[in-house]
């Protein structure tokens, strides 16, 4: 994985830029010593590291605007960073750029129960929003496994999901408005507390834009009342294929669970050893199916799901009998990633999405690939919407294993595209999947996406080196081809 070569002119400006940043954010708002910068050298994709020129930690929208205006004028690259939990290298620094950290934007600004909205600064954690409203019987639906740490601003940048996104949607389905700063320092508001944003869907463009178009400084999200009843069912199967087929049948029956997750044997055993959620140890695949709504409806759906599971060969079925037991079932799923960290020195967490009907085929092929690459794989994923999170286990201290893990991961993502899926579901492209974008998009597709970036960021200072395998200059994308002195469509008026 290669990043753009550091720009010598930018590096030569370092001391002057640091002093200018200190004038904008006085006190301890600028980090410039090499030892302190090490804390920012990577995000959750820790295989790749780079020490930035500086880190700046503003606390107001005005400071963010001044910082971006300065960097735009000086052509200094900027990498926005939330909590640093990105698993695709989205917050990977650049040696000739600064990191714009938003950790000080950590306040909830408004809770409006009448309109069922919360307005928060981008550094507020995902779980922090639910904690702020749960006493009134509300919650924020998208719930990534990292929700205790990941920031709502980062959720917007990556369009994060979670175990409940099957029924209640990703970030984009729960986001109502943002305040954002453009690279030139202009401050915009998109959307608000109303149901839908006006005119062009710029809010939709910003959601999942991975820090390439602007910096979000305020977020308004929809909150939901807690359902009357929620119960989870554990269903165990003798094979991954049976579990995958059961998922497709549940959805085909018209049932939309609050959450529908799947774990394979390595993940089951790791989670049980880590936090004892009560998982069966004699199954190859485990489904966690949560059903919510009125009590009578939930009881009926549990019976229906149990019947479907038995038809697919389920050997273990257990429904939660209390809220404490339901939370315990989910504890193992939420803790699966750290649990797997106990059984391998390193692991590479992937993210791809496939049609549900392809689950059993893809799981079988991944097991075959595991043997081909000589690396174990544990599967923990959002089965209901086909969002896979294979964990490739390796040891970075063994020569060649990291590279082999990356090759294995690329093969999985190519398989996702091959069966009609996409390269990412919620982790984003970042640097991890950047060079695989041509597997999914043509050159014309990618050029058109880059033209959109140019509309927001003509100087290309925001998060360069991410998402696009080869970033064009904006002037190149706007060039008109002239053949033998003739411009295209010469009869059209030009202004």
In short:
The chain is of the alpha+beta class and 495 residues long. It is built from 19 helices and 20 strands.
Name the CATH class of the largest domain.
Answer: Alpha Beta
CATH architecture of the largest domain: 2-Layer Sandwich
Gyration radius, rounded: 24 Å
Question: Tell me, what's the shape?
Answer: globular
CATH topology of the largest domain: Uridine Diphospho-n-acetylenolpyruvylglucosamine Reductase, domain 3
Total number of distinct structural domains: 5
Which percent range fits the helix content? 25-40%
Number of strands: 20
**Residue ranges: pLDDT <50 for 5 or more in a row?**
none
- Cα(first) to Cα(last) distance is 43 Å
Main beta sheet: 7 strands, antiparallel
Strand line-up in the sheet with most strands: 15-12-14-13-18-20-16
Overall mean pLDDT stands at: 94
Decide which structural class fits the backbone: alpha+beta
> Strand fraction band?
15-25%
Number of helices: 19
């Amino acid at each position: 994985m290669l990043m753009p070569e550091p720009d010598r002119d930018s590096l030569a400006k370092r001391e002057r830029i640091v002093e200018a940043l200190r004038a904008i954010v006085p006190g301890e708002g600028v980090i410039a010593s090499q030892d302190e910068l090490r804390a920012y050298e990577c995000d959750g994709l820790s295989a790749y590291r780079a020490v930035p020129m500086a880190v700046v930690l503003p606390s107001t929208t005005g400071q963010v605007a001044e910082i971006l205006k300065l960097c735009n004028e000086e052509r200094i690259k900027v990498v926005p960073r939330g909590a640093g939990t990105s698993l695709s290298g989205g917050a990977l620094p650049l040696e000739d750029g600064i990191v714009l950290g938003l950790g000080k934007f950590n306040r909830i600004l408004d809770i409006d129960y009448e309109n069922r909205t919360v307005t928060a600064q981008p550094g507020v954690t995902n779980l922090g929003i639910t904690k702020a409203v749960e006493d009134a019987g509300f919650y924020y639906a998208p719930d990534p496994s990292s929700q205790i740490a990941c920031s709502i601003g980062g959720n917007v940048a990556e369009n994060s999901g979670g175990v409940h996104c099957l029924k209640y949607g990703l970030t984009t389905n729960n986001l109502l408005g943002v305040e954002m700063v453009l690279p030139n320092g202009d401050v915009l508001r998109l959307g608000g507390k109303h149901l839908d944003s006006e005119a062009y869907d710029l809010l939709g463009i910003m959601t999942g834009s991975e820090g390439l178009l602007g910096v979000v400084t305020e977020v308004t999200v929809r909150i939901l009342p807690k359902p009357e009843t929620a119960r989870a069912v554990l269903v165990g199967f003798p094979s991954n294929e049976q579990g995958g087929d059961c998922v497709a049948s549940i959805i085909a029956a018209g049932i939309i669970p609050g959450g529908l997750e799947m774990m394979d044997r390595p993940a089951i055993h790791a989670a049980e050893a880590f936090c004892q959620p009560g998982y069966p140890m004699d199954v190859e695949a485990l489904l966690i199916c949560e059903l919510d709504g009125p009590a009578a409806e939930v009881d009926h759906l549990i019976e229906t799901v149990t019947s479907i599971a038995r038809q697919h060969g389920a050997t273990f079925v257990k429904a939660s009998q209390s809220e404490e037991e339901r939370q315990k079932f989910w504890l193992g799923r939420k803790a699966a990633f750290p649990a797997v960290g106990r059984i391998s020195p390193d692991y590479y967490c992937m993210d791809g999405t496939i049609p549900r009907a392809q689950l059993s085929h893809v799981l079988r092929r991944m097991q075959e690939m595991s043997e081909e690459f000589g690396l174990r794989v544990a599967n923990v994923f959002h089965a209901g919407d086909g969002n896979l999170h294979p964990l490739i286990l390796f040891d970075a201290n063994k020569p060649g294993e990291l590279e082999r893990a990356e090759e294995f991961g690329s093969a999985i993502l190519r398989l996702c595209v091959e069966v009609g899926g996409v390269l990412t579901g919620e982790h984003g492209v970042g640097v991890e999947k950047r060079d695989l974008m041509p597997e999914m998009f043509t050159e014309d597709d990618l050029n058109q996406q880059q033209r959109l970036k140019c509309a927001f960021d003509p100087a290309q200072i925001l998060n360069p080196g991410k998402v696009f395998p080869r970033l064009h200059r904006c002037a190149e994308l706007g060039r008109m081809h002239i053949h033998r002195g003739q411009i295209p469509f010469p009869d059209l008026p030009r202004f």
